[in-house]
Design brief:
Elements (H helix, E strand, L loop, with lengths): L5 E7 L2 E6 L2 E6 L2 H10 L16 E3 L11
Parallel strand pairs: 1-4
Antiparallel strand pairs: 1-2, 2-3
Length: 70
């Protein structure tokens, strides 16, 4: 099975780690941060993202509405 290029890792202290094709791009505290990180990396220039697109995003331990540690 093909893996999504963007992985938003589980919430932890300091936000959720964002990786693109296995490369660590930084930490996000909200969906807007994920978008900004991906734009800086040159992944996409679009103004909106479809967060539930499983061909692009893999959200671990909660989707785009989960930002705090359990």
């Amino acid at each position: 099975m093909k893996r999504a290029p963007v992985i938003v890792h589980p919430p932890s202290t300091g936000g959720r780690r964002v990786t693109l094709h296995g490369q660590d791009l930084g930490r996000a505290l909200r969906p807007g941060d994920v978008a900004a990180i991906l734009r800086r990396a040159g992944f996409c220039t679009t103004t909106t993202f479809v967060w539930d697109d499983t061909g692009v995003f893999e959200w671990r331990d909660g989707g785009p509405d989960v930002w705090l540690m359990p």
